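task queued by scheduler; priority normal; single chain, no ligands, no partner chains; default sampling; output format set to structure tokens
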Amino acid sequence: MSTPIDPAAVMAAFIDAVEPYDPRPEADPVALIGVRTALGEATFAVGDHVIRAMCRALAAYRDPEDRGTCVECGSRHLDENLHCGECGRLHGILGEVIAQHARRVAAEDVP
């Protein structure tokens, strides 16, 4: 079982990491961010520099479960072996080798 992540603590750590580089630390806050979870709640008044950094970080995020899109059915449910959970197609090098083999076998069976 994994340890729960405290979003408010993560937000505070992110702000602490970014704020020292704000070229205008005296500027008024431009946003108020509230975080409320089962672990607690917190409110952060942040400036433009932090908001821009947060937007860049969110835009750059890629989910570790994202393995692409199935070329057969368009599903986004490829497992760690690049096997589509929707249509069953196998992707990647192994999938291509298996597909080529299946085509050869099918061609050999044609009278």
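post-processing summary
- The radius of gyration is 24 Å.
- The longest helix spans residues 92-109.
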